[in-house]
Amino acid sequence: xxxxxxxxxxxxxxxxxxxxxxxxxxxxxxxxxxxxxxxxxxxxxxxxxxxxxxxxxxxxxxxxxxxxxxxxxxxxxxxxxxxxxxxxxxxxxxxxxxxxxxxxxxxxxxxxxxxxxxxxxxxxxxxxxxxxxxxxxxxxxxxxxxxxxxxxxxxxxxxxxxxxxxxxxxxxxxxxxxxxxxxxxxxxxxxxxxxxxxxxxxxxxxxxxxxxxxxxxxxxxxxxxxxxxxxxxxxxxxxxxxxxxxxxxxxxxxxxxxxxxxxxxxxxxxxxxxxxxxxxxxxxxxxxxxxxxxxxxxxxxxxxxxxxxxxxxxxxxxxxxxxxxxxxxxxxxxxxxxxxxxxxxxxxxxxxxxxxxxxxxxxxxxxxxxxxxxxxxxxxxxxxxxxxxxxxxxxxxxxxxxxxxxxxxxxxxxxxxxxxxxxxxxxxxxxxxxxxxxxxxxxxxxxxxxxxxxxxxxxxxxxxxxxxxxxxxxxxxxxxxxxxxxxxxxxxxxxxxxxxxxxxxxxxxxxxxxxxxxxxxxxxxxxxxxxxxxxxxxxxxxxxxxxxxxxxxxxxxxxxxxxxxxxxxxxxxxxxxxxxxxxxxxxxxxxxxxxxxxxxxxxxxxxxxxxxxxxxxxxxxxxxxxxxxxxxxxxxxxxxxxxxxxxxxxxxxxxxxxxxxxxxxxxxxxxxxxxxxxxxxxxxxxxxxxxxxxxxxxxxxxxxxxxxxxxxxxxxxxxxxxxxxxxxxxxxxxxxxxxxxxxxxxx
Length: 747
What we know:
Layout: H1 7-18, H2 27-39, H3 49-62, H4 68-82, H5 86-99, H6 105-129, H7 151-166, H8 171-184, E1 212-213, H9 215-218, E2 223-224, E3 229-232, E4 241-244, E5 254-258, E6 264-266, H10 268-271, E7 281-285, E8 294-298, E9 312-316, E10 322-324, H11 326-329, E11 337-343, E12 352-357, E13 369-373, E14 379-381, H12 383-386, E15 394-400, E16 409-414, E17 419-428, E18 431-436, E19 450-456, E20 465-470, H13 477-485, E21 496-501, E22 507-509, E23 522-528, E24 537-542, E25 554-559, E26 563-566, H14 568-571, E27 579-585, E28 594-599, E29 608-609, E30 611-614, E31 623-629, E32 641-648, E33 651-658, E34 672-675, E35 681-688, E36 695-702, E37 706-710, E38 716-719, E39 744-746
Parallel strand pairs: 31-37
Antiparallel strand pairs: 1-30, 2-29, 3-4, 4-5, 5-6, 7-8, 8-9, 9-10, 11-12, 12-13, 13-14, 15-16, 16-17, 17-18, 19-20, 20-21, 21-22, 23-24, 24-25, 25-26, 27-28, 28-30, 31-34, 32-33, 32-35, 35-36, 37-38, 38-39
Helix pairs in contact: 3-4, 4-5, 5-6, 6-7, 7-8, 8-13
């Protein structure tokens, strides 16, 4: 049933629709997105909440008696919750609960649980959203995160206690009861002992100082639904800028340029990105080798039949603006997706594009796409000929040279339970060709559903390993969180999988051995080195569209390549809201990496502020920043292999890195941040350039600098970035404390 185009959507899209009088180079895509938004704004679309309200009203007019009327009332109340109108939902649910006969226990319980969630969410809205602080919704909730207006949390406590009185095995309600007590400031003392859940203990062998969310101070506390994030130097001034998106076709992108003084400028309107709406994920690239980082926007994920939204390739014009070149580049297609990877798959010096599309629950096929760069601004689709036209519910894609043969391979994570490794066999009949080696590689046995994924060398042995996050569940995520707190068995649900490279084309599952047999239910995620010890850590954004999915995002510290420790609690980064695009970056240039995460859920009423967790580690460790520029290889040097040798506290060490933007949901800068422990000098840097596999060696390179290296030029340039102290600033009056030295050159 199609509902008339609602006035609220028309108002939101009015600038895009009406700007035909002011021609824009992006107008063709703007109009296309507006058309798609209109056509998918129907009651049958589970994410078109506004359009379903009149639909449920029409059902109520036709069905005045139970059970049809109760079903429609309950659905309408849930729709109000999705729209952020909790008080309207509460009114409907209270009456419905009163009207249902006592013998319908399961129905009354379901209504009561939704009612409790509405009160808890109303408490979050009045406190964590309207009066947001840097500690809002950080698990375990304490300090300034405790609600000032406690009414919502206290009412939720009352309702969850009633539910648990009659069903003590309802672990979802037990978890949310403990969260409500935290929000009200009564945890743990006020929680009934039989219902208390203990917070996971801290690993005493890992010392991690708390991060601080300073997004509001820096002006990066963008409030939107789920989306992607890129942190990258987009204007080539040496300092990173930030781009975010929101998956709803009613909200445009955001672009903030770095003022190089500790503040950011909102350049969204002048950049041309304001009316380019939608996008659950973003990636940076330099598709035309002009030295300016471009943006690729991925759209339509999760929406199944309603997700036929076009992706966008946005060319960086080098003047602060971006032009949508999707049509002219030959990249226009209509497949639901949120994941892709840019790499030079045929080693011709130009970046190609692999897109992992979603063949969803309705069965309509949406095969993956491979676009080969024609080296003239256009692409040719070649997935079938290349042997990689995979049809699956793909949620994560990553590329890397896992067998060190000089050809970029592809790994796919899916909700079908398949983990697919595609080996790049090089050029066959004039084109790159892939072969599915999943079974031979030892990746075909675990059939659990998975989501975000990446290649990285977690143990520094020079061979890429695979991390892929489980997304298998039959209960709510809150149920699993409670079960983990109670040390109850949970099978494979939501577990993190780590596959170690055996150096012979096969992988072994070392998840349990490395301490990663923990639940996370990760959607977004990325990796970095939070303490500059040379071992890669990672941060996961967790959740799903359900409002009851109040589970913390998680940070794992790499302990010398042998195991991972969950340091979420001491680091104070366990945001309970839904986490999506993640970026590791030293935003204040003080030497250690911070974390920026794009927050928010799938509904308008579940929007939330993005978080910028500033690292206050004050470590004695050092790092080096490597900025590479290709010549015969792709200009962004994506796929370059790095070997860094240094002496750390008298011990000779070697670590390995690949140039990429990190995980499959969120983008780090392509400039590589590499921790080197206590070393103040790097003994040797070996850069192996992609394609040609030629190497350049640099010795005695100073630490704590940006080292700029160009392919085929042996001299390198060294600069130091200004340092900004965000933590000491008064909101709205942000200064910088520069530590600047003249540019140096070395060999």
